[in-house]
Design brief:
With about 250 residues, this protein is of the alpha/beta class. It is about 25% helix and about 10% strand.
């Protein structure tokens, strides 16, 4: 009997330690999203627009990502100054900087998996989104409302280099949370992947049963989709479901 109690106590203790570690990692992940969102708005305050998803040369050839433009706003001015803004991200001179991944671009839970030079935080790109490509948008373009527009998302098992001009493409991605077969908003965190809406820098965790239609509607800035919100039941969790009227319910505590 004593041995059983010892085993059960050890199991309970390991479980609590594991939960505490995950809570710490999730908090650090949210901090990264907060910092990037804050930097995006700092950039917006400076240029009256968000950075373009892709910086291209005069011929239209993609060079590097918005993440490079954000470096000075993340306290990485020295790294930014060393980056050749007239060359591609994978040019010899810029690849010298490839391994110096700013910590804000990596989720702590993803550090042990995948390429350490990849990013776990991306935007939704493509026509009609907040990041349509080489063009910039401002909050005044968000006709659906900043509270109904996704600005930043988390992805798991990323293969996107932090300097690479690539994100989640609206035309190719899945609108199912944690889709195992297609690039999607995803996360190793049990409470779901984090997203940041354009109205503030708060992080919301998406539940796996969130309606794909609702999620897609939050990715466009002027789609005119009907989306309704209700008071959430759980802190920092986001759920959505389409009704017969084509509306949805979703929310998160402040």
């Amino acid at each position: 009997m004593f041995l059983i109690l010892v085993v059960l106590s050890g199991w309970w203790l390991l479980k609590q330690v594991s939960k505490a570690r995950e809570a710490t990692r999730e908090m650090a992940c949210q901090s990264c999203l907060n910092q990037i969102a804050f930097a995006l708005y700092w950039y917006h305050d400076t240029y009256e627009a968000f950075p373009p998803a892709v910086v291209a040369d005069e011929g239209g050839t993609p060079l590097y990502s918005w993440r490079v433009l954000l470096l000075p706003y993340l306290g990485c001015t020295e790294l930014y100054d060393e980056f050749d803004l007239n060359a591609s991200w994978d040019s010899p001179q810029n690849m010298r900087l490839a391994a110096r991944t700013p910590p804000y671009f990596r989720c702590p839970s993803g550090l042990s998996t995948g390429d350490v030079q990849s990013t776990n935080y991306v935007v939704i790109s493509g026509p009609g989104t907040a990041f349509p490509g080489t063009q910039s948008t401002s909050v005044s373009d968000f006709q659906d409302g900043v509270e109904r527009t996704i600005l930043l998302v988390e992805i798991a098992n990323s293969t996107i280099h932090w300097m690479e001009p690539r994100d989640l493409d609206l035309a190719d991605m899945s609108f199912v949370i944690d889709d195992p077969g297609t690039p999607s908003i995803s996360s190793p965190h049990p409470r779901g992947p984090g997203i940041v809406l354009a109205n503030n820098i708060s992080v919301y965790r998406c539940q796996p049963d969130m309606s794909p239609a609702v999620l897609k509607s939050l990715m466009t800035i002027a789609g005119g989709e009907p989306v309704a919100f209700e008071r959430p039941r759980q802190r920092n969790r986001w759920s959505g479901r389409s009704s017969q009227a084509g509306e949805a319910s979703s929310g998160a505590n402040p």
